[in-house]
Amino acid sequence: MASCSEQPRYGCGIFLLDIAGLTKAQKRWRIAYLAIYASRVMLSLPKEIVSPKRNNNYNKVLHSQQAYTALHVKPDTSTTSHIHVNLTNEAVVGRDDHVLHNVDHEVLVEMVKDKNLETLRELEGVGSVATSLGTDPENGIPDDDQHVKKRREILGSNTYHKPPPKGLFYFVLEAFKDTTIIILLICAALALGFGIKEHGGEEGWYEGGSIFIAVFLVVVGSALSNFRQETQFDKLSKISDNIKIDVVRGGRRQEISIFDIVVGDVVLLNIGDQIPADGLFLHGHSLMVDESSMTGESDHVDIDTIDNPFLLSGSKVVDGCAKMLVTSVGMKTAWGAMMSSITRDSNERTPLQARLDKLTSSIGKVGLTVASLVLVVMLIRYFTGNTEDDNGNREYNGSRTDVDDILNAVVKIVAAAVTIVVVAIPEGLPLAVTLTLAYSMKRMMADQAMVRKLSACETMGSANIICTDKTGTLTLNQMKVTKFWLGQEHIELEDTSANSNLITSNVRELFYQGVGFNTTGSVYKPASSDSEPEFSGSPTEKALLSWAVLDLGMDMEKLKQNYVVMHVETFNSEKKRSGVLLRKKVDNTIYVHWKGAAEMIVAMCSSFCESSGIVKSLNDDVKEKLEKIIQGMAASSLRCIAFAYVQISEEELEYNDDGKSHKRLKEEGLTLLGIVGLKDPCRPGVKKAVEACKYAGVEIKMITGDNIFTAKAIATECGILGTDSQVIDGEVVEGVEFRNYTHEERMEKIDNIRVMARSSPFDKLLMVQCLKQKGHVVAVTGDGTNDAPALKEADIGLAMGIQGTEVAKESADIVILDDNFSSVATVLRWGRCVYNNIQKFIQFQLTVNVAALIINFIAAVSAGDVPLTTVQLLWVNLIMDTLGALALATERPSDELMKRPPVGRTEPLITNIMWRNLLAQSLYQISILLTLQFRGQSIFGISEAVNDTLIFNTFVLCQVFNEFNARNMEKRNVFKGIHRNHLFMGIVAITIVLQVVMVEFLKKFADTTNLNWWQWLFCIVTASVSWPIGWVVKSIPVINEPFISFLKRSLRSVFI
């Protein structure tokens, strides 16, 4: 260390370091003091270095009130042996607190945003910035909660200010914008005004006020449902945004939430990761990022320490691996500022919703036509003097009739016509879709599936092919090395000490190189000698590191001290191998190591190594024996990975055009080190899930990068393939074979393929395209960055939540949180359930629409009056739209759904079965209510008011009983599993209670009168007849041709 006299620019004065005659303890004390003093000086430098002036006057770097002390300690033999220095966590936190307050953070923020190399040079590089932030580039920040909390308080949290979610009031206002609601409000206001003028304030408000209250209830019911949906989407959005990131804290690799990252963190980046914050490149290999989300540029950007060390939040890693230093988080990043201004669109229209919008529009037009006819007929009847008031007097008497009475009567007629439109327009259909999608999304989340795109919920119900990965989806992804071949020699793994003696030290050293450096994993050894090492990384990497450390005795820390990594070629799904270039520090010898798919690595080798260290030629006979070894391990469901190396000279290094970085590693003439077999057992229950999918008419195709023998073994174990004797020719192919087919051959053979081995992401994409061209609805699972095109191309993309990269997740429609194929089968069940629930509600609502329209039209044309008043029809609309949707849209999936074939792309939304059911129920309701309308008074000897109440009460109770029929469109037993649907039972009970209140207690509001017990009994019995009718009707077979097509064809044959 240079003396203080040589550093006048620091202004530290004269500091005497007289260690002569000091004991060891006093020397440690003196060194500790100097270390603290020096760190304070160095860590305060960036305050001035990154100041807006950006000058290099280091005299101004130190804090203006920094105190300096000359320390001289005299020897004290009586106490020196007991002097210790203990820097506690509190001391560290306090010191770093001081450092962080001295950092001009805004300059760092702007430097990274602007990619300003000049400023970075003034700061003396990335290492100096790391020091200023109190970060050790290798070990990260201290793994201490208090320390992290302090950083978050001083430098900000990695969150951004999201626009507040839409409140209930917003949806109430949106509901009031509906044209029919506005017309009804105008009618209500006019009726209120005329009523008060005619009957006074005490009684005159009833009619207009009733309409106001009824409209308000409908609006609030709709608004509450939409608000609930918005809240649900907001919760799912937060879960979706909570990405897990690997960081190094206190020298230990750990996984944390993206929201927990703080300035100064060291983040580990691999292919497919999203960069969680703005930062600087510390070190890594072949790092390329996609900044299109930030800059709009599609070209990938190379990242290095010299020309471009800047990493922007929101970008994606497309190649390589790296460590980055976080310099700014949250709102101080460009990504955070951009995201805070974006409102998540929860009004996404799914294909089914688009179809329902057309259906709603068509039914609305019919309702508008009927309402217009009713309006015209009732106006004609009124102005021709064919209507009477409550006292039996003629309402219209020409010029003698008061203008206010005429206007009041016209308002009533218009209100009745508008109400018919309100009831006719099935506003509940979009609501039902929204409710069932929101409900299913919530339940699917509990079943380990997170929906990113609403359309996937319904599309999954139509899927008839699922293309699935093997590793982690069909298997547990819990790897363990169970077989080890060194050359042609099988090494037993049970006896570790025997292995150490059997394999010579130089061969073990080569394995250490190949495993320890050619990896994206890491080993953390706790301070306690009794603690087991902790392994991080992918399951494959953890298994290999565990084997090398525990079985071969690899010491990772010692290994890092002896070698320098010169270049890394990261694992690629197409190459199926990864490589590393090393230089040994002692003698500068250079090694190339490759690791990957066994048969591919063996093909690159010209020799092999024995346990004694002797290298022998890899002739055809040895290759054939090795192939049999690989096939034998693969047939036992083992993943086979081989290790190979070659020692090269400086002259053999291959450079790229700029002459700076090593672009290609030697790929031929390698020496085979050994082959390991990793066991990855099948997931429990996966065979049952595969069988359930097959039973449901959904074909499972397994696409894997493993070799053909491993693929066949796993596929057989999972039930995708039969036994060897049952495997048909063409059911198992390799990716290279599939891609080399002509287009015609692929289209001919694709339906027969069950397993594709050694496939690349391009092969998966090609298969999806071919299947879609043949008319299949395809779901695809994927986890890698290169799977993104196939996930986007598929009808339903299913990304893996644990092993999946952020690129894969963003390309997918649904994220399978536990990477389990059983969860994929559950998503299939929910997809069918969504579609089925919506069809149930369509059947239920159209029954009400048809019955209400025909009853009101016939009554208006024949009698000049509608049996159901405006308030009554609005009440029916409320229970039909909101409560009915809640009751039927929240049915959970049943096993029966998985016994049906998939719903085709072109299958009509309203099936013949639905037409059969709704027409039967509508005809029954129409016949009963019209009988009551024209003959009810004479049959029962009751007044008109009681008869009108009977009609209203019977009509509502018919809908209640028909809700039970709608629970199952085909099965006669509509009560099966009803005890499990508490919401359905609760809504039915609420509807009945409210109906009793409407009839018995809100007589003036609902324009009803009291009913006695036998009249109630009549209403209940009449409505309950819909159950036996439904039971009988479901016995009637239906034709296969869609009803509308059949009707059009029949009409053409009659008139042409």
UniProtKB/TrEMBL annotation:
<dbReference type="Pfam" id="PF08282">
    <property type="entry name" value="Hydrolase_3"/>
</dbReference>
<dbReference type="InterPro" id="IPR004014">
    <property type="entry name" value="ATPase_P-typ_cation-transptr_N"/>
</dbReference>
<keyword id="KW-0460">Magnesium</keyword>
<dbReference type="GO" id="GO:0005886">
    <property type="term" value="C:plasma membrane"/>
</dbReference>
<dbReference type="GO" id="GO:0005524">
    <property type="term" value="F:ATP binding"/>
</dbReference>
<feature type="domain" description="Cation-transporting P-type ATPase N-terminal">
    <location>
        <begin position="122"/>
        <end position="196"/>
    </location>
</feature>
<dbReference type="InterPro" id="IPR059000">
    <property type="entry name" value="ATPase_P-type_domA"/>
</dbReference>
<dbReference type="Pfam" id="PF00122">
    <property type="entry name" value="E1-E2_ATPase"/>
</dbReference>
<dbReference type="InterPro" id="IPR036412">
    <property type="entry name" value="HAD-like_sf"/>
</dbReference>
<keyword id="KW-0109">Calcium transport</keyword>
<keyword id="KW-0007">Acetylation</keyword>
<dbReference type="InterPro" id="IPR008250">
    <property type="entry name" value="ATPase_P-typ_transduc_dom_A_sf"/>
</dbReference>
<dbReference type="Pfam" id="PF13246">
    <property type="entry name" value="Cation_ATPase"/>
</dbReference>
<comment type="function">
    <text>This magnesium-dependent enzyme catalyzes the hydrolysis of ATP coupled with the translocation of calcium from the cytosol out of the cell or into organelles.</text>
</comment>
<keyword id="KW-0472">Membrane</keyword>
<dbReference type="GO" id="GO:0016887">
    <property type="term" value="F:ATP hydrolysis activity"/>
</dbReference>
<keyword id="KW-1278">Translocase</keyword>
<keyword id="KW-0813">Transport</keyword>
<dbReference type="Pfam" id="PF00689">
    <property type="entry name" value="Cation_ATPase_C"/>
</dbReference>
<keyword id="KW-1133">Transmembrane helix</keyword>
<feature type="transmembrane region" description="Helical">
    <location>
        <begin position="413"/>
        <end position="439"/>
    </location>
</feature>
<dbReference type="Pfam" id="PF00690">
    <property type="entry name" value="Cation_ATPase_N"/>
</dbReference>
<dbReference type="InterPro" id="IPR044492">
    <property type="entry name" value="P_typ_ATPase_HD_dom"/>
</dbReference>
<dbReference type="GO" id="GO:0005516">
    <property type="term" value="F:calmodulin binding"/>
</dbReference>
<keyword id="KW-0112">Calmodulin-binding</keyword>
<keyword id="KW-0479">Metal-binding</keyword>
<keyword id="KW-0812">Transmembrane</keyword>
<dbReference type="InterPro" id="IPR023299">
    <property type="entry name" value="ATPase_P-typ_cyto_dom_N"/>
</dbReference>
<feature type="transmembrane region" description="Helical">
    <location>
        <begin position="1013"/>
        <end position="1033"/>
    </location>
</feature>
<feature type="transmembrane region" description="Helical">
    <location>
        <begin position="846"/>
        <end position="864"/>
    </location>
</feature>
<feature type="transmembrane region" description="Helical">
    <location>
        <begin position="982"/>
        <end position="1001"/>
    </location>
</feature>
<keyword id="KW-0547">Nucleotide-binding</keyword>
<feature type="transmembrane region" description="Helical">
    <location>
        <begin position="363"/>
        <end position="383"/>
    </location>
</feature>
<feature type="transmembrane region" description="Helical">
    <location>
        <begin position="870"/>
        <end position="890"/>
    </location>
</feature>
<dbReference type="InterPro" id="IPR023298">
    <property type="entry name" value="ATPase_P-typ_TM_dom_sf"/>
</dbReference>
<keyword id="KW-0067">ATP-binding</keyword>
<dbReference type="GO" id="GO:0005388">
    <property type="term" value="F:P-type calcium transporter activity"/>
</dbReference>
<comment type="function">
    <text>Catalyzes the hydrolysis of ATP coupled with the transport of calcium.</text>
</comment>
<dbReference type="InterPro" id="IPR023214">
    <property type="entry name" value="HAD_sf"/>
</dbReference>
<keyword id="KW-0406">Ion transport</keyword>
<comment type="similarity">
    <text>Belongs to the cation transport ATPase (P-type) (TC 3.A.3) family. Type IIB subfamily.</text>
</comment>
<keyword id="KW-0106">Calcium</keyword>
